[in-house]
Write a structure and sequence with these properties.
single chain, alpha/beta, three-stranded antiparallel beta sheet, disordered N terminus
Length: 238
Amino acid sequence: TRAERCARTMPKMGLSGAASAGFDGARMGPPPDIPSLLLNNRIVYLGMPINAGVSELIVAEFLYLQYESDMKACYVYINSPGLITEGRQLAGLDTEGFAIVDTMNYIKCPINTICVGKAYGFAALILASGDKGKRAVMPYSSVMLQQPISYAQGQASDIKISAVEALYNRRQQFEMLAQATGQDLERITRDASRSFYMNAQQAIDYGIADKVLEKEKVPMAQVASMPPAVAAMARGIQ
């Protein structure tokens, strides 16, 4: 019928908000963006400094995944310098990081966190805030603890108020990290007084992560027991 033909060719909105027309089940139009494709597979990627825009997107993605299913696991891949840029410039406020961690603690679906590259400052807290046993680091990733950075300006009284708020946020961040890692607050405060770098195994020993994530290799004995065609593919012959 005419209604059915119109329905087949009517533009549909993807996760990215871009309209893509379909005809007889085939998509026509621009493909969705990469974050939308990842989100469709319950993957959240934090790959830049944390600012207001990044925090808004990450929180929205968590809420969407919670609405879609509070039983299915989601996966958070982290490669971020935290609240600062690579040039040590302040990118966002502490509240942006708190918003992400609070949302992670609010939603019910299991959260796997994976560090790929680096997790510095507040990004390390996000890594540690995944579910226990589901926090992973890549073999050559780097984790770093540091004090929050504040660039207060204005009148002396305003600078004093900002300094008090910065100290309060620092204590809140360190208390959350102590709860997630099992470390004493005094040790975290001492370690983070200067940039404190850790490799993958050191991050596990510190309690920020639980395991090193590596590709599973098929044992040769198992390959030998496979059918010849499958065994050849496993050895990379085909």
